[in-house]
Amino acid sequence: MTFSWPIRVYYEDTDAEGVVYYANYLKFMERARTEWLRALGFEQDDLTQRLKVVFTVRHVDINYLKPALYNHLLNIETSMSEIGRTSLTFEHNVVLEKGDDVFCTALIKVVCVRTDNFRPTRVPQEIREKLNGQ
Q: Which of 3, 20, 49, 87 is the most exposed place for a label (fewest CB within 10 A)?
């Protein structure tokens, strides 16, 4: 299943030439992962308070293919590529809302860690069940 989250490129997202600053793609992807979790019924603050876990980025493999520009309407397409014992790996594609332009692709691995010591812990069973039921 692919989850898609729309993002408009604002002036604050760009450099002096009106091109999306490279690090902002990671922010866009973070927002898409948060909204993807929310769409599955999980709020990150609830995971922190109730289950005492957070997800932290462990590894990023990113490819910048072409520049997105000021005022573009993008879709951040997010899908699960791997569910590990303590980790989730996401595949992201940043695409123009209308058209075939792909601006950026990434594989991002996040690790589930406990809030009391920030050590890896199992992805909670309720999240696993929801992911396996997709």
A: 49
The domain segmentation of the chain, as residue ranges, is: 2-132
46 is annotated as an active-site residue: no
Catalytic residue among 13, 15, 61, 116: 15
- 45-59 per-position pLDDT tens digit: 999 999 999 999 999
How would DSSP label each residue in 46-57? HIIIII-EEEEE
Torsion sign, CA atoms 12, 68, 19, 76: positive
Please provide the CATH number assigned to the domain covering 2-132: 3.10.129.10
Q: What is the pLDDT of residues 75-112, one digit of tens each?
A: 999 999 999 999 999 999 999 998 789 999 999 999 99
